Amino acid sequence: MTGGGAIVPAPLRERSLRSPGGRAWLESVPTVFAERCADWGLTPELPPGRPGFAGMWAVVVPVRRRSERLALKLVRPHPEAALEPVALRLWDGAGAVRLVDADPASGALLLERLDPGRRLEDVPFPEAAAVWGALVRRLSIPEDARAEWARLERIDARAEHWSDELPERWERLGRPFPRWLLEAALDVCATRGVVGRRGGRDVLVHTDLHGMNILGVLGGADRAVPGGPDAGFRAIDPQVAVGEAEYAVAPMLWNRLGELPEHGAPEALAERCRLLAAEAGLDAEAAREWAVLREVENALGYAEGPGHREDLERSLWVASALTGRLLPGLPGARDLAPLG
């Protein structure tokens, strides 16, 4: 059996060592790993000396329970992590990785095993958009009587909060971008927030649904939805809220910017937004508006800390490109730093 202390890959270990909470989590991993394997009857399937697969704040280890091929996910505690099992229970395997078991005390999750070598990020964009759209249609479940829904944030309430917060942050940070771009974001808050919203259908939204958070199932296309184009892919690592499904489009726009053409990149990004919306049966203008707001809010987050100049440039490029008024002085799309 692989020792718990050896399963955390070096990049995740280095990130975790930067804070007391991260160090405490690292120290707990061997014990939690051993306890979950014992209690859930799991046999790790890592080659000797090889670590597990790392996300930003979690490590995933392939395991077997009798004939079942599963994955044990050990998550460093953070606010979004507490809602992951909530969302996975609500989806119950429809478009998202299936949750087999969970240990609330440690945050450990036992999941259906997916194929880490088959990411939607690596699929050519037009085909990826069709897969993404099919998954969004499955993931966009309406609210029902289950108690778990009460734990989730409302997207329109988030926008209403931003309408007050964003101007204050913009002023405090020394006006890091032109006022007109801030106003474009505030217009979205006014029309899609709680007060200004007119109609719309609230569903469960995976708010970080980009190509690296969509993996192929073991067995590939043999497990695709009959008659659908999802091609045997499933969403992972949900960050969730309740609201308009159009909110989910933005991460597919701010990833893969290096693929945009050298000339006409802003127009190509807008076309990607329209394509994604069409594949998912969404309103393209609402998707564009949410993406502008989300990237302006991201830009302010990057402006708040040192060392994020390239991230700030990327967010400003996407937000301004989607308004049809690209800010001058930014790198070209192919020169922007990739996310992460």
Structure write-up:
The longest helix has 21 residues, at 20-40. The protein is globular and about 60 Å long. It contains 10 helices and 11 strands. The strands form 3 sheets. Strands 1, 2, 3, 4, 5 and 6 form a 6-stranded antiparallel sheet that branches. A hairpin with a 3-residue loop joins strand 2 (53-54) and strand 3 (58-65). It has 340 residues and is an alpha+beta fold. The mean pLDDT is 92. The protein has helices spanning 10-16, 20-40, 84-91, 125-139, 155-172, 179-192, 250-254, 265-280, 284-303, 309-323; strands at residues 43-44, 53-54, 58-65, 68-75, 99-103, 108-112, 114-119, 203-206, 214-217, 233-235, 240-243. It folds into 2 domains: 4-113, 2-Layer Sandwich (Phosphorylase Kinase, domain 1), CATH 3.30.200; 118-335, Aminoglycoside 3'-phosphotransferase, Chain: A, domain 2 (Alpha-Beta Complex).
The total count of strands amounts to 11
| Helical fraction | 40-55%
Number of helices: 10
Which CATH top level class of the largest domain fits?
A: Alpha Beta
End-to-end CA span: 32 Å
Return the CATH topology of the largest domain.
Aminoglycoside 3'-phosphotransferase, Chain: A, domain 2
Order of helices and strands: HHEEEEHEEEHHHEEEEHHHH
Average pLDDT rating: 92
How much beta, percentage-wise? 15-25%
Query: By CATH's scheme, which homologous superfamily of the largest domain applies?
Result: Aminoglycoside phosphotransferase (APH), C-terminal lobe
Domain module tally: 2
Overall structural class, as computed from helix and strand content, comes to: alpha+beta
Radius of gyration: 20 Å
Outline type:
globular
Which architecture of the largest domain per CATH? Alpha-Beta Complex
- Unreliable stretches: none
Largest sheet, in brief, is: 6 strands, antiparallel
